[in-house]
TrEMBL record:
Cofactor descriptive note: Binds 1 zinc ion per subunit.
Residue numbers binding Zn(2+): 416, 420, 494
Binding site for ATP: 194-201
Gly residues compositional bias, start-end: 637-646
Chief localisation class: membrane
Species assigned in the record: Halopseudomonas pachastrellae
Active site: 417
Subunit structure: Homohexamer.
Protein family (similarity comment): In the central section; belongs to the AAA ATPase family. In the C-terminal section; belongs to the peptidase M41 family.
Protein name in UniProt: ATP-dependent zinc metalloprotease FtsH
The organism's taxonomic lineage, starting at the top: Bacteria, Pseudomonadati, Pseudomonadota, Gammaproteobacteria, Pseudomonadales
């Protein structure tokens, strides 16, 4: 901006100088015709130049003048000039060539044509970029050359099986003859299925980086526009570009935006999407071969894709990119920690055990948050304490240090969280208590965090009922200390989760002895991996619906009674834990072990004695674990304390 300003100032100075030079030239005096005739009669004119009606000349005194001859016949002027010894000069009229006259006549038309062509070029995406208003039929795929794709398989961790599946693509792109000699051919397309953040796009870029081929990337939503036929045109244009750069890879992210089941809707927009899908089907496996073009697509909704898209010859292979297990998380952490200066106490294996259910993107965010914590503290190394604080921030929410709570509200929150922790500790097959805090985090006034001990991919009926018991522990603790009329709205989320677990046990998982192993719930939309859609009862009679309600009520009542009995039997431990929370604000497994053993809890490590705990107070060395149980695991994990909504 500064350079442009200086340039314009220089240009302005030059123009001013030139104008001053022109203006400094003395202009001849302009006389009327009568004054000119008087000068001639008085013999004061030395010479004149006649140019049509314009007469310029010089007086004998050296002064220049100019006058305009009237448009009347004045035959005596020449004689008067000669009689008074005036030198007469004439000016030959300028003769323009035919080409000059033609150019002058056609110049405005040429200007109009040039302006029109300029705007048309801009509208069609010319002039150094794509995407003009008239370029809606062009593909929006962005091509990355082999020099731009630096990602390799060394940058991908935590999904060894998926890497093995796609390594064949690299071998084919490098040496296709190896497969063709044996009559085999590489899959035309590979569909990567997995939850968000598991590394589908990263894996596709690694394939392109290893194979050293061009990489086209586009989103499924980029195909469909408001204009009919645009999507199909963009598909054709994309494959035409790919053929020019074959062998290459086309990566379509979120392909479910364009690859849904055909015939599942009505209207122009639906018809346009179907045309786009049809063109994609033809390009992937039609009459024209697309040798050397491999299509890789990613989605977290594989169930909504059209069967014709998934058949062999199009997407021959489906690669499931799931959430990493404890070993995979450790590998991912090591990849992201390469550029981070770490302290000697940082152990990726311990962090991996304490981050169950984290995706690759979550772990990358964890490392970044830890680096930010260390930077705020002006540290030169990122230590284990920063990683623990980052994990707590991600799993439980950021601390709301500015929030001021009354002592009564604090005490109520302490009893609420203590109820969750004690019941969760005493019921069978429940995840261990990781941490309890009454520091407001996110939208909750307090949080009780449970972490599993080992990899588990299913839950038993006993484990589910134990989760329901621990969810009711907070409300029961409030009722025991404040009375029924003093119970707060803080347990609203706990009640909702407990009720949903009980409903699923009866209507989806067949865990009711009375109703048996039948599924009564119908999922409205469970296509998103990592997310369960809400479902209602379908095809159920009124009598059966009544029995379902009765079974849900029975499970809730039994779990509520179990939690109440456990807290009544351990009232002393409830009071002791609430007192410890009021003093330390955050307690972990060591303090909880002391309380459950009937001992006074030890002080948290690095406790500052002012009601605040340092980062070292967080202990996970022996209590980490791993689990990803889809919707069944929703009863585990962080349980919020009293708040309006959490």
């Amino acid at each position: 901006m500064a350079k442009n300003l200086i340039l314009w100032l220089i240009i302005a100075a030059v123009l001013v100088t030139v104008m001053n030079n022109f203006s400094s030239t003395k202009e001849p005096d302009t006389l009327n015709y009568s004054q000119f005739l008087d000068l001639v009669e008085n013999r004061q004119v030395e010479r004149v130049t006649v140019d049509g009606y314009i007469i310029t000349g010089r007086e004998r005194s050296g002064e220049s003048f100019k006058t305009v001859r009237p448009a009347i016949q004045d035959n005596g002027l020449i004689g008067d000039l000669l009689d008074n010894d005036v030198i007469i000069e004439g000016k030959q009229p300028e003769q323009q060539s035919i080409w000059t006259q033609l150019l002058i006549a056609s110049f405005p038309i040429l200007i109009i044509i040039a302006i029109f062509m300029f705007f048309m070029r801009q509208m069609q995406g010319g002039g150094g970029g794509r995407g003009g208003p008239m370029s809606f039929g062009k593909s929006k795929a962005r091509m990355l050359t082999e020099d731009q794709v630096k990602t390799t398989f060394a940058d991908v961790a935590g999904c060894d099986e998926a890497k093995e599946d796609v390594q064949e693509l690299v071998e084919f792109l490098r040496d296709p003859g190896k497969f063709q000699r044996l009559g085999g051919h590489i899959p035309r397309g590979v569909l990567m299925v997995g939850q968000p953040g598991t590394g589908k796009t990263l894996l596709a870029k690694a394939v392109a980086g290893e194979a050293k081929v061009p990489f086209f990337t586009i989103s499924g939503s980029d195909f469909v526009e408001m204009f009919v036929g645009v999507g199909a045109s963009r598909v054709r244009d994309m494959f035409e570009q790919a053929k020019k750069h074959a062998p290459c890879i086309i990566f379509i992210d979120e392909i479910d935006a364009v690859g849904r089941h055909r015939g599942s809707g009505m209207g122009g927009g639906h018809d346009e999407r179907e045309q786009t899908l049809n063109q994609l089907l033809v390009e992937m496996d039609g009459f024209e071969p697309n040798d050397g073009i491999i299509v890789i697509a990613a989605t977290n909704r594989p169930d909504v894709l059209d069967p014709a898209l998934l058949r062999p010859g199009r997407f021959d292979r489906q690669v499931v990119v799931g959430l990493p297990d404890i070993r995979g998380r450790e590998q991912i952490l090591k990849v992201h920690m390469r550029k981070v200066p770490l302290g000697d106490d940082v152990k990726p294996s311990l962090i991996a055990r304490g981050t169950p259910g984290f995706s690759g993107a979550d772990l990358a965010n964890l490392v970044n948050e830890a680096s930010l914590f260390a930077a705020r503290a002006n540290k030169r190394l990122v230590e284990m304490g920063e990683f623990e604080m980052a994990k707590d921030k991600i799993m439980m929410g950021a601390e709301r240090k500015s929030m001021v709570m009354s002592e009564k509200e604090k005490l109520n929150t302490a009893y609420h969280e203590s109820g969750h922790a004690i019941v969760g500790r005493l019921v069978p097959e429940h995840d261990p208590v990781y941490k309890v805090t009454i520091i407001p985090r996110g939208r909750a006034l307090g949080v009780t965090m449970f972490l599993p001990e080992e990899d588990r991919y299913s839950l038993s009926k006993r484990a589910l009922t134990s989760q329901i018991c621990s969810l009711f522990g907070g409300r029961i603790a409030e009722e025991m200390t404040l009375g029924f009329d003093g119970v707060t709205t803080g347990a609203s989320n706990d009640i909702m989760r407990a009720t949903q677990l009980a409903k699923n046990m009866v209507t989806k998982w067949g865990l009711s002895e009375k109703l048996g192993p039948l599924q009564y719930a119908e999922e409205e939309d469970q296509g998103y991996l990592g997310r369960s859609g809400g479902g209602g009862l379908s095809g159920v009679s009124g009598e059966t619906a009544k029995q379902i309600d009765e079974e849900v009520r029975r499970i809730i009542d039994e779990c509520y009674g179990t939690a109440r009995r456990l807290l009544d039997e351990n009232r002393d431990k409830l009071d002791m834990m609430a007192e410890a929370l009021m003093k330390y604000e955050t307690i972990d497994t060591q303090q909880i072990d002391d309380i459950m053993a009937g001992r006074a809890p030890r002080e948290p490590k690095d406790w500052q004695g002012d009601g605040k705990s340092g980062p070292g107070a967080i202990v996970t060395s022996d209590e980490g674990g791993d689990s990803k149980l889809d919707e069944a695991s929703k009863g585990a994990g962080p349980i919020g304390g009293p708040a309006g909504e959490h």
